[in-house]
Amino acid sequence: MMIPAQFDAKAAESKWYDYWMKNNYFHSKPDHRTPYTIVIPPPNVTGVLHMGHMLNNTIQDVLIRRARLKGFNACWVPGTDHASIATEAKVVAKLKEQGINKADLTREEFLKHAWEWTDKYGGVILEQLKKLGASCDWERTKFTLDDDMYASVIKSFVDLYNKGLIYRGYRMVNWDPEAKTTLSDEEVIYEERQGKLYHLKYKIEGTEDFVIVATTRPETILGDTAICINPNDERYTHLKGKNAIVPIANRVIPIIFDEYVDMEFGTGCLKVTPAHDVNDKELGERHNLEIIDIFNEDATLNSFGLQYEGKDRFVVREEIAKELESIGNLEKIENHINKVGTSERTKAVIEPRLSDQWFLKMEDLVKPAIKAVLETEEVKLYPSRFNNTYRHWMENIRDWNISRQLWWGQQIPAYYYGDGKEDFVVAETKEAALELAKQKKGNQGLTVADLKQDVDALDTWFSSWLWPMAVFGGVLDPESEDFKYYYPTNDLVTGPDILFFWVARMIIAGYEFGGAKPFTNVYLTGIVRDKQRRKMSKSLGNSPDPLDLIENFGADGVRAGLLLSASAGNDILFDEELCNQGKGFANKIWNAFRLIKGWEIADIAQPDHAVKAIAWYEAKLNSTVAEIEDHFEKYRISDALMATYKLVWDDFCSWFLEMIKPGYQQPIDSITFAKAIELLEANLKLLHPFMPFLTEEIWQHIAERSTEEALIISAWPEIKPANTQILADFELASEVISGIRTIRKDKNIPFKDAIELKVINNDNTSDYFDTIICKLGNVSGLEYVSDKVGGALTFRARSNEYFVPVGGNINIAEEIAKLEEELKYTQGFLKSVQAKLSNEKFVGNAPEKVLANERQKEADALAKIATLEQSLAGLK
To answer: What is the pLDDT of residue 807?
Structure first.
């Protein structure tokens, strides 16, 4: 088979991915083997590949390909998430461009548009993952709104409701005015922002006196129903039993007293707006205050906003401040930094809002999940420092608001049959709901037409928390063959930003519905950032297109480049040069393969240096396989690749091939050639999880292979004991070879000119690799001596002394003069450094870093002087 001069990444990627797909290597079904299972963190159905996906899915593919090579029944389930808020927002925006308002559509009409959008754009990201080499079981692809997945979510809701864990409550919630839906507490991101503190004057009823209240939100005064003061605040005892008048609205409100108020903040007086602050709501309940909601669902002001009705809250903030100033009710404005809650999805500023919503009680549900991670370690987080984050979140958990004011998603299975708040039933189907409603109402005359299903959808996370179970049918049928075989899964690879959103909730759901942990290990990747440490994003324009990177550097180059800098949990400072490094590594391996295949093979005796080289590389391979396995066991994927990289680049390409390479226009013996191919194949197996296309291409070039002999399903190298003595002996031999090469370089002695080498073996080291030293150093004679050799260039390797008689290679007199001049300069330099270090004033005042630098200079100078003196002694 003709071997191209260059590795054609694009051709290899297309050819071998099609080959793998055609031969169904990615597909898994239950059998006698031990399963190894990963479920993909489902990306948004209408999303496109970004750098975070690239990193995450490369790691997953490495794990799944390695498991396949190790003989496991490897199953990687792909899929996408319907992403309620994000997808609905895109569909609404598209409809708006067409002049269609969502409010003018029925739910069914809107969902038709949403499915059209999903059918058009959904799955693009999965196709892009194929370009990366992701070896998912595509036959198992799932979508969170597939019929069976939808049914799983509804079943779990009904189950939790029947256990008394889901309830409907009128509570203060986080309202996203852009998406027009509630959010859970975990979906609110708090940001420090520069704002203002407005000091407002409220007139005391029946007097000319004022009380001053500080607020960051003057627009909300239109919803004020009280002013609250700490009862221990002596400044305001005269106001007990009094009322105040809200500026502009001119409403009379009571002045109440409650220890909740911080006497040190602002003026010590708090305006109470129960409809727009969770703490104010609690105050309102304690003091029976009126509730006035001044906002529409888009955070514009409603009729309670008086003349500001219809205007956005932030516009009103500016305008009402001016009006308050004009009527004498604005005391002053100060700059003030405060924390502002924003929507994790839309980035809109969250508005607290009172609303009827569905909640899931979390206090007892989290207990098994806390125990699994923090006590029994049934589930392990990598790196383990995230245990502290997990503990904080889980031990401070609040009830989960699971309803969303959206249409795209699983519709809440609650059915209303009357006018009262409690006139509803919860069931998996409308027919089952009808039977329950008849029983509850005692009215056998009810019909399906009398039932109205709750219009809200469930939080997207309420479906994805079932993902590891639902993809195998475990929620609907816990006895299904797939579920019993593949669950629990093995590893989960995801970002730390969804440790609570998704990971913790899957653990909770796993124990609640599956009776077991959903996975054993959680590998938390870092965040991909640019060289300035900024998170990559479209808005900053600092995120390269992953497909462009694959086009320029090849999928293998991008995979290797990303992973070489991606230690668990640590952010990746991405630089395209990393991908170029990966591409260079691929070319190095390709050229090494071409070198081997280019040798002429002959039936001749195997030389001693080749026997020794093979023995050493086999020991090095065995040692490195054990090291790689240890890295994988500890989820140090980057370290595993680096160990493989060094083995292939340094040990195989730079040392082993040089050791066995036949002389110019000379053949290689057949035994050594066969062994070189065998060791190359072992390297390819270790490299395959990281660089699948290149390795399969070389593997198939080496020999004609049947489909049962493809690299993707070959066997991972076994861990065998490494000959540590050979490894130790070669360490010294490599130092000797480096010493010879340094002398050749420094003294311009061409490699074609053979040299002699004499050794004083002070360390009593083995002569096992002497033939290798002679070959790689072009040493015509290696002799062990007991005394120093005159007229020679010298170097040390550990305690051994090595002498290269110079003969006619150099002018001894010139070399001695040059060395003496360098020695004189270095001695002068040392004297100046030591003068500094003996100066008490300098030592007493200089920073430690400066002192350490000077001491290092002294040590380096002393070492250089010793080397120069040794070289001179050898020449004289």
So the answer is: 65
